[in-house]
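Kindly review this record before class:
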Amino acid sequence: MLLNWNSLLLSGAALASLVDAQVDPQLTGTWTTKSRKVLTGPGFYDPINEKMFEPPLTGFSYSFTDDGFYEVAHYRAGSNRMSLFLWNKELALTGVLAAQPACPKGIIQWQHGKYHKASNGSLILNPFAVDGRQLMSDPCTYGNAVYTRYHQQEIFKHYEVFPNPYDKAQRLNLFGWDGSPLNPMYLVYKPPQMLPTQTLNPTSAAATASQPSSTSKSKRDLSGDDDGLVQEALNRKALLKQKQLTDANRLWWLGIGMTALGGIGYFWF
């Protein structure tokens, strides 16, 4: 009798786990933001040759399968800012921020793994930690873009899937863990455009961490620490532009110096 009760309890726990870890067929496919230039799949990341490809515009893309796998691609860019210190008329040192248009920053991130919908309606994305990659470009700080492993669990408090009222395209709204909305995404591929849903670069400690969807083996093993790997900066034109604007930057600093001297002269004379 005790054995039967134990069996019932185990069966109940397993059933509760299955209910809590469900997938949503509405999510199946590849979704991308309005620019439609950032897409998951081999056009964004090449795991064999360890290369990431810069899209022409920023944005992000999520793909989901009907058996609980996901893939995500992010490309973000922004201006670099620096601190300047100027003397005001009272001879006090004032700190200001100024943009450096010759130093745009960019970050490309790629992850994949397994997802599930929790019983409270939230969406939980658990990446294969050894596979995630990040390429960060900061041409005024580093000569080359910095290429590293990257993994970050994502939790979305809730989400919405519905036809866009303007063009009837399927739309996905994701809301962060704090309820803040992300930019809307639109369905572009169904079935999804993704890389294989298995660990692509397994280490000896994590070779069995994922559940492979095929029997193919990875063609490259990055079992060592790759934090020192570098690639060409994301925006090659920005690096060239930086060299071309060297003289202009000197003139700009000279102008600031003359302005400061002018302020001192106004105060004293």
In short: The longest strand covers residues 93-117. The chain is about 20% helix and 35% strand.
